[in-house]
Amino acid sequence: MPEPERDNPGLPHLPPTYPVLFLVVAVILDWLFPIAILPAPALMSLNTLAGIVLVVFGLGLDFWAYRVMQAAGTHAEPFKPTTTIVSHGPFSFTRNPMYVGFLLAYTGLTLIFALEWGLFALPVLWLVLDRVVVTREEAYLMRKFGATYAHYLTHTRRWL
């Protein structure tokens, strides 16, 4: 008997686990195979200040997107059903503001802690989020909302 279709994108893991896992791996690689391209972490270095700005902006974007989804009456958690397409707030300039926020915060943390391996892994993290998370979510939303979602796709970029 075929399994009934779930009313969610069926992601293998919660999306925040990807940047966290990549950071853990970057710390381990940095410890095992140190690379000294970035200056050592220091309180008032340009890396640290840029990193703090990216973390604050990334987490702010995540929080804003989460609040907009809540206000629209839909779930931000990908294991729960989506009830509507949100196209205002941060969703008016990117279809994935929370994932953009994750990538900004991740990049900021790699700068703050001078994790070169984390910077090298940034394109891989982006690719994993794009292929494993976003494509599944978009397929789910297309099945569920059809023409409404197709219209949104033509007016809003996937990333930036």
Short synopsis of the structure:
This protein is mainly alpha-helical and 160 residues long. The protein has helices spanning 17-32, 46-71, 97-112, 116-145, 147-155.
Could you please describe the fold and organization of this structure?
The chain has a domain at 46-155. The chain contains five helices and no strands. It has helices at residues 17-32, 46-71, 97-112, 116-145, 147-155. The chain is elongated, with a radius of gyration of 18 Å. 27% of the residues are buried. The model has no long low-confidence stretch (mean pLDDT 93).
Query: Assembly type of the shown chains?
Result: single chain
Shape: elongated
Q: SS-based structural class?
A: mainly alpha
Low-confidence parts lasting 5 or more residues at pLDDT below 50?
none
Q: Helical percent range?
A: 55-70%
How far apart are the first and last residues' alpha carbons, in Å? 42 Å
Provide the succession of SSEs: HHHHH
- How big a fraction of the residues is strand? under 5%
Kindly state the mean pLDDT as a whole number?
A: 93
Number of helices: 5
Largest sheet: none
Number of strands: 0
Query: Radius of gyration, Cα only, in angstroms?
Result: 18 Å
